[in-house]
Design goal:
This protein has 262 residues and is an alpha/beta fold. 42% of the residues lie in helices and 13% in strands. Strands 3-2-1-4-5-6-7 form a 7-stranded parallel beta sheet, sandwiched between helices. Helix 4 links the parallel strand 4 and strand 5 (143-147). The chain binds nicotinamide-adenine-dinucleotide (NAD).
Amino acid sequence: MISYDFTGKTVVVTGSARGIGRRCAERFLEAGANVALCGHSPRNIDDLLAELEPFTKGHNERVMYATCDVADAASIDAFFTAVVERFGAFDILVNNAGIWEATPVGSVTEEMWQRNIDTNLKSQLVACDWFARWHQENGGGQSIVNISSVSSVLTGENTPLYNLCKAATNSLTRTYAHGLGSLGINVNAVGPGTIATDINKAAYADPAAEAAMCDSLVMGRRGKTDDIANAVLFLASEESNYITGQVLFVDGGWLLQQAPKK
Ligand code: NAD
């Protein structure tokens, strides 16, 4: 594993109560960063600090947790304001929080639209824009990494809303890369394939479904949260500061395959 040094950097990872976001937060802590985690629900901070001890090695002052609903711009504003008050900086933003739900073609409702847009897309736009404004006023800043998906470039008759939100993430990434380059901030996205987390646990609960998916992938396995964290840390690090506006697919070869006709 590459060992990065994020000592002195302040990193925000949205949706870091579990899954990909949680693993990214752990890896940034291990690499010395100050990390602000957030989730829907309040957390007992002592319990969280105990869980994170293997990564902080007791440096609890580097951890912050906030309850934040990323679908709500005021909630993001309150969270980010608290981060800069606490750490005095905001170097890296990882826009990870997201939901996946079936919204089959022919049954999309306005309520589904609103929930998907607010959680998967508006959240990333509001967060990128807050970050942009803060750095326009205060200088500094290093990277934004938005979590996209292979779905951003695929169609899915069961998930038109998820797919369009993630496609828009790619566009948002390029646009903010353009807008923030003059400040020395690079903006990229990571597009996971299928990663074993709670978001898709039900879909792969049947071992036959898991085996069929693994068989269909060039690399023969589903991804791990570390596969995504590896890409996120690279794109957030100074090693990648001449890479901007890109979407790095971490998908075990999913996008190499021909799309089936149906
Ligand atoms: P997950 O369900 O384990 O984690 C998602 C996190 O986002 C959770 O902690 C959840 O609480 C949080 N979240 C959701 N809505 C929120 C809200 N309104 N406010 C605050 N937090 C909120 O799923 P994951 O697999 O870790 O997904 C992380 C990201 O990766 C998502 O953007 C998802 O779309 C993307 N992704 C995942 C996969 C995969 O196969 N797991 C594939 C492609 C993309």
